[in-house]
Task: inverse folding
């Protein structure tokens, strides 16, 4: 099953993705907002254009965004740790609460429909 996209539309699509990527980078660097605020809507439009089923599209958008955010966050943490800019006592106080929150959110999201 191949996806055939006319080359003019493909270039426009790639340009839109590049602009979105630049916007995400600027907003994240200037204001510290998460890239998911910009990337999830971009992914939604991209996956709509690619013909991804509506029933899984939003889940795929959020999952793709998380697949980018998690390694980026780990790299950022290690960079700050290297410079001595991490409050390890505060981080240790979250070692139980954050994983419990992630587990609870994962269970809840498993029952939320794409609609």
Result:
């Amino acid at each position: 099953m191949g996806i055939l996209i006319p080359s003019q539309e493909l270039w426009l699509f790639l340009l839109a993705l590049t602009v979105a990527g630049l916007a995400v980078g600027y907003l994240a660097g200037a204001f510290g907002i998460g890239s998911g605020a910009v990337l999830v809507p971009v992914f939604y439009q991209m996956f709509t254009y690619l013909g991804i089923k509506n029933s899984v599209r939003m889940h795929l958008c959020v999952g793709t965004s998380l697949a980018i955010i998690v390694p980026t966050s780990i790299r950022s943490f290690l960079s700050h740790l290297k410079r001595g800019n991490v409050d390890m006592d505060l981080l240790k106080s979250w070692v139980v609460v954050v994983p419990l929150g992630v587990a609870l959110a994962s269970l809840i999201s498993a029952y939320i429909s794409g609609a």
Q: What stands out?
A: The chain is about 75% helix and 0% strand. The two ends are 26 Å apart (CA to CA). The CA atoms of residues 59 and 112 lie 9 Å apart.
